[in-house]
Design a protein that fits this description.
This protein is of the alpha/beta class. The chain is built from 10 helices and 13 strands.
Length: 328
């Protein structure tokens, strides 16, 4: 088979990394670019690409959510405009398209959600009736469910925009707090603005949250092999289980679904993988939250099987009725 990898060409020609234009995407891609320079010895240039999710001002659930930040980058890969691309893994549809390979999933950042609130307040310290901004139905469902179960009065407010825009709602006094991914704030060097991290027992993150995905053309075998050096097998196994759950639920990335896989140890020996999943109505009135534990998977197929098993249990408990329109 012919290798169309750019690594087979002039070593002085920079590798082209496709990225969204946002500050966070550029920061994430910059980190990956540095790592790729190290493993390949090649220069890497960032190619900024505008996606539909970047230009639309509609809520993600209204524009489909799944793939809106990804499609333009994948088109650039397939057309040869860029050599590889970096995505936030939680934005990737669960079905891998023909012609592209997920070459690497680097070590995951903190998968939790983080609160940025006025006056340095933690979630439990927010006043009655506090207005909390988020663009995520998943966060709305779990925050409202937590508030209901603890006798708290909050109002979740749907918002869009980059990190500056969202935090700006708090600084201006329009909102009491916003919830953002801890990983994104960390990559932007803005964890000092966090007033509290939301434990997974309170709010499960989105499947794949905190992880990055490095994608390239299937024919670029040399490049794929080089990028594979950045892959972290533990992260890959965990997110495979989470994304298999999402796929089996037939839910898009904007559905109110949370999932987190983590490794459990007996002393110094990691011997189990626990997968937790949640689906809820955005008002928090109904929640299906289950977990499953099994031996550490010896293959990605085993990890995916664990995700499918938990999804079947959740569907049996009525999860489908809480997700609105399911993904096709």
């Amino acid at each position: 088979m012919t290798d169309n990898s750019p690594l087979g060409g002039e070593t002085t020609t920079p590798l082209r990394l496709g990225t969204r234009r946002s500050k966070l995407a550029m920061a994430q891609s910059g980190m990956v670019a540095d790592a790729v320079r190290e493993v390949t010895g090649r220069a890497v240039e960032l190619v900024e690409i505008t996606t539909y999710g970047d230009v639309s001002r509609e809520q993600l659930a209204q524009i489909g959510g799944t793939g809106v930040f990804v499609a333009a980058l994948r088109e650039a890969l397939l057309s040869g405009e860029v050599d590889f691309a970096v995505h936030s893994l939680k934005d990737l549809p669960t079905t891998q398209p023909d012609g592209l390979v997920l070459a690497a999933v680097p070590v995951r950042e903190d998968p939790r959600d983080a609160l940025v609130a006025r006056d340095g307040l933690a979630f439990e310290q927010l006043p009655s009736g506090a207005r909390i901004g988020t663009g995520s139905p998943r966060r709305m469902a779990q925050l409202n469910a937590y508030a209901r179960s603890h006798g708290l009065e909050i109002e979740t407010v749907a918002i869009r925009g980059n990190v500056d825009t969202r935090i700006g709602f708090v600084r201006s006094g329009e909102l009491d707090a916003v919830v953002l991914a801890a990983a994104g704030l960390s990559r932007l060097g803005r964890t000092d603005e966090v007033t509290g991290f939301l434990p997974a027992d309170t709010v499960l993150p989105a499947p794949g949250q905190g992880a990055l995905a490095i994608e390239c053309a299937a024919g670029s075998t040399d490049l794929a092999a080089a990028l594979a050096e950045l892959d972290d097998p533990y992260t890959r196994v965990a997110v495979t289980a989470e994304r298999a759950l999402l796929n089996a639920l037939e839910a898009g990335c904007s559905a109110p679904v949370g999932a987190l896989a983590d490794f459990l140890a007996d002393g110094q020996v990691v011997n189990e993988l626990r997968l937790r999943g949640v689906v809820g109505s955005t008002d928090g009135a109904s929640l299906v939250q289950l977990s499953i534990t099994g031996p550490v998977p010896t293959s990605l197929d085993d990890a995916a099987a664990l995700g499918r098993e938990l999804a079947a249990e959740m569907l049996a408990k009525g999860a489908a009725g809480l997700m609105g329109e399911r993904a096709l």
